[in-house]
Structure formats: structure tokens, C-alpha cells
Glycoside hydrolase (Apiospora rasikravindrae), 455 residues
Amino acid sequence: MSGISPGRCHADVNSAHGFAFQCLATMQYKNAWFPFEHQVLLRPTSDQQTRSNMSQLPAGAVGTAVGVLLYSFVCEICNIVMVWLLLVHEEGLSYVACISYFALLSTTCSIIQQFHDYIFWEDVTRAQFDNKTENVGNPQLTLANGSVGLDLVLFYIQFYCYTVEATFVLFWAFSLTQSVYGWSDKPRLRRIFKQINAAGKIISVALPLLTVCLLQVPATQSSFVGFIVLADIEFALSCFGGCVLLIMILVRYVHTRRQLKTWSHGYGKKSSSTETTSHGAHTSGGGRKPQSQGIYDRWLLIRFTIAFVFLAIFEVTNIVFQISAQQNNNRDAAAAAPDLSAERAIAMMYFNMPGVTASLLAFVVFGTTRPFRERMYRTFVPKWFQRQKESTNRASQHIQYTRRDLAAKQRSTSFKLSKGIDVDTVVQMDDLRAPEREGVPKNGITTTIEAGRRV
């Protein structure tokens, strides 16, 4: 023991005791043999267990997350069915189809982003907080709510899809206005409007892509007002232009109804000799092959109006989202740590719903026409139920036709004999499905004619 001080020896003994206690504590935590009072100190808390089971999402926001995610999947399924219906009816290039394609893409990206945010909620929130504190005043924080990495990519894909859908609605309103006012029926203007409609679909896809690319330029992000105007101008102009065209269509409708004329439009209808599809395709009468039934009905104006109203509501929601994002940026810039509360998580979850609702709306508004309903009935309803319903419908139609024929014969007999003989015609209708009885034929009809005296 020479050369070793008593104080150092005592410290070594204490450190050895501490190391032994740590080893025993570790064994206790795994094998659960240590006394209860030590187990309380070493077991994980209930909050830590909840975070481990539900990833990083706050426990109070789990129910909302599940609800929003299920709603998003319902919208996704409806959009897939809508795309299938359009392809089956050979309307893959119509405006409804183009809107459905991009709505499906945006909904898919939203679901991916929700999974990413729910699983890595704390990491995503901290990354957004760091981005907001390091880039104070950057207008992209207002547009994307401080998203970075994968979230930022998914946001811009959704933003691009929303703008494309709005632009498609604008050119669709213009095409519908041509049909209502008969502009496209004039030979001199037909080719011009056909080229405009074709160019409109290209512009609807290309122009928003150019806008997204310009938003990534540092010079654009240096101006807050210029950045926000560039981001929202195309969507706002599409809403404004569509509103003007919709008013023109409604004015024509009211004018037609006040003159007691039948309201009709040639949009999406095909003639017998020359067929013009909804997207400008022109087919001559000779050697044409049979085409599928159109997907539009007489409620097209109402359906389009509903879709446009939702587009306007979505624009308002987009403005509210940007204002909320700016408020979050101001709070995070003044805070010392990110807000990981359940209230903050729930508020952000609700903003995922308007974007995915476009997929559901496309199906509810345009997927419920008669041709689409019949196609879904033949495809998804069990065959045995269809056969049973068809048998019931045939029996009901047979009863209606029989009654109609008997009424016509009764009127004819009364008319022929009214001037010579007083005839009382009694028609007794029994249940056609009842079994045959004595004195009653199988068709269940008994006719008695009593001859009277001559008038």
C-alpha cells in the first residue's frame, strides 16, 4: 500500500461500489429481480412507453392522425375508381380525366407525407424549427411552413398539382362556354377553338411547372411580395377567369329559361354523321366504329358549378394556411425550443384534409352520372343479386304492360259499342304471381261483358 494515499484508496472503493451498483441495476432492469423501490426508479415512464409505441407522435394527436389518414385513403380509393371509369369509357384525355390524374398524384404524396410526419414527428418539427430560425424572412417558409428535405419535395409536388387542377378547370370552363354559346359550331371558328382547347391542356401542365422552378431561384426568394405573388397568381387568375365564364354560362341559362325554351348544350355529345368529342376530337361519318356512351348528362352545369365552388373554397383555405404558417414562423422565431404539443400537431393535421378532398369531390360530382353508375353496378355488385333484381324488374314491367294493354282494350271496346249497344266491361285484375284457381286463367284476368238493350 506504499505510495497510495488513504483518500485515493477510499475513492477507488467508492467507484468500484458505484460500478457494481450500475451492473446490478442493469441486470435488475432486464431480469426484474431487484427490490420494488429500485424498479420504480429504473423502469421507463408511461410517456416514454407511449412514444415508443406510437413513434414520435404525441399521444393526444394519435386519434386525429388515424382519422385524417383513413379519410385520405378513402379519397385515394375514390380517385382510383374515377380514373378506372374514365379509362373504361375511353375518356382518358377529357378534362375530368386530367384533373383526376393530378388529384390522384397529390393525394398519394399527401399520404406519404402524413406517414413521414407521424412517424418522425419530433425530428420533422425540430428540423422545421431550425430552418425557421436560420432563415428568418425567407418567403418559402410562409409558403411551405418551414418544410425541409422530403417534406419540402412532397409539398411542391402537391402545390404543382393544385395549380394544374385549377388551370384545367379554367380551360374546361372556356370549352363549356364555347358549347353553350355555340361558338365552336361555326365553321370559321371551329378549328381555332379546337387548337385553343388542345393548347390549354399543354399550358395547364407546363405553366405551373415553370412557376415551381422559378420559386427555387434565390433572386425570387429575395423578394417576399414577389415570391408570394408568383406562387399564387396562376391559381387566383384561374379562379377569377373560371368565375367570369361560369357567370356567362349561368346568364345564358337564365335567359333561355325565361324565354320558356329547353335548355341544352352540345358539350360531350356525338352526332350521327360527324362526332365531336368533349376534347375536340373530330371523326367523320364514313367507316366509324361504335363508341362508348358519353360520360356527361343534363346535370353537367350543376356538377361543374359544385366543382368550381370547391375550387374557390380551396383557394380560401390556401390563404388561411399561408397566414397560419406565417404566424407559426413568428412564434418559432421568438421561442427557444420547438412546439411539440399535441395541439400543434392536430392543427397541422387538419390542413391535410382540403388537398385530398379534391379526389373525393371528383368522384362524387363527376363519377355519379348514369353511365358510371351502371358500370360500377355491373362490376362491383354480385352477379346473383343482379340476376335477382333483373327478374323482379321483368315481372314488374310485365304487370305494367298487361295493365296498360287492358286499359287500352277497354277504351277501344267502349268506343266501338257506345253507339249501338250498352256494354259494361268489367276487368278484374288478380295478382299475376298467384297460383291458378278454378275459373281463373293463368294470366289472372277475367273479363265479363254484359249485353244490354239497343239504345
About this structure: Residues 383 and 389 are 10 Å apart (CA to CA).
